[in-house]
Amino acid sequence: MATEALVTVAIGAVAVIVVVSRILGAAARKVGQPAVIGHILAGIALGPTLLGRLPGNPTGHLFPHEVLPFLTVLSQIAIVIFMFVVGYETDWRQLRQGGRAAATVALCAALVPAGMGAGAAGLFHGAFTAVQPHQSDGRAFWMFMAVATSVTALPVLAAIVRERGYAGSPPGTVATAAAGIMDVAAWLVLAAALAGAGHAAARPWPTTLLLIALFAAALVLVVRPVLTRWLERSRAAQSSQLTIALGLALSSAWVTAELGLHPVFGGLLAGLTMPRPGGVPDADVLRPMEQTAELLLPLFFVTTGLSFNVGSLDGDGGVLLALILTVAVLGKLLPGYAAARFSGMDTHQSAVVAALVNTRGLTELIVLNVALDAGLIGQELFTVLVLMALITTLMTGPLLSLTERGRNRRNTPQDAENAVPVMPDGQR
What we know:
Elements: H1 3-30, H2 35-45, H3 58-62, H4 68-89, H5 92-123, H6 125-131, H7 139-150, H8 154-163, H9 170-195, H10 205-233, H11 235-239, H12 241-259, H13 263-273, H14 283-306, H15 315-342, H16 347-357, H17 361-374, H18 379-410, H19 413-418
């Protein structure tokens, strides 16, 4: 395909992606789901699962193979910027505010599903090999399954907390803080899995881990203090903070990619490194980075959707999906609820926390794409796990509605008027 024709097709593809994603995102909000659900469904709808089944294969015409590398590059830049925003927005004070309750919930709602996920990969080895014959063995795969079943999507959870009115409430604060702790732990374990998988680079995995640790230390101990002093003393630097942030995110992503890890790790490290005046993200940096990520993220969902085909699943895939769903859902809901109750929260608050930490969404999709690119999983298992991520995220809204209805049935108007919210750790 000639360059001019390639540019024309790529522009048309981006236009279709943005418009369809916006429409389905708005539709998702109207039915009580976060907009990201609509974006995920847009990616699936434009891929071989739906549009590709129509006569003439419209998916192939909209997204020819020559265009896919360009869309992939744009989608990866979007994810790097998104991960920068996640790191930059990480509120360590809120993590501390959650206190013992958040730490307890994070510990239980991460370790239990992680252990169940890794255990399922070993105990039900036949179910995995039936779907993924050559990639279901070894420590790296078991570590990946531990991450895949224990992830909680902090960005989607935070959006649900705001939209459902839980912001600032005990369950909202605890669930958000716990999700932040679990996300950090999940990325660390995934980094170790990739470094030990033999896909990262032509060097021993302990060397790769050491280099990553040294790079992270350099960002925190050298780059952050230098940037802080520069931004405090230079007006020119203050006026170009956005450029500095974007350059830091992309260069950090490049370094982690060169060291053998996915660029998303670099974006996250850059966000954690970027100075925040007074401990609060600068709106002049945060807002445009958020808007850029939001604008480009639909490209990521579509490139994911092009690798996702429900029609490729057979009976073995259905059995594996049921197994993974059972592990993922029970491994989150039961420990999350029990940990919240143990921390002093009432039954309703504990149920809200459990429902929230079961949300996976975008973070899970990023993890799955990283594993797919690294060769840890194949297309069939990727499809099964994307379905798991979609189902568990769709569950969150209905589960929260059920908890609200259950509380309303238990409480009389007088009870509700006199109720005193129970804070975690016995605070009032």
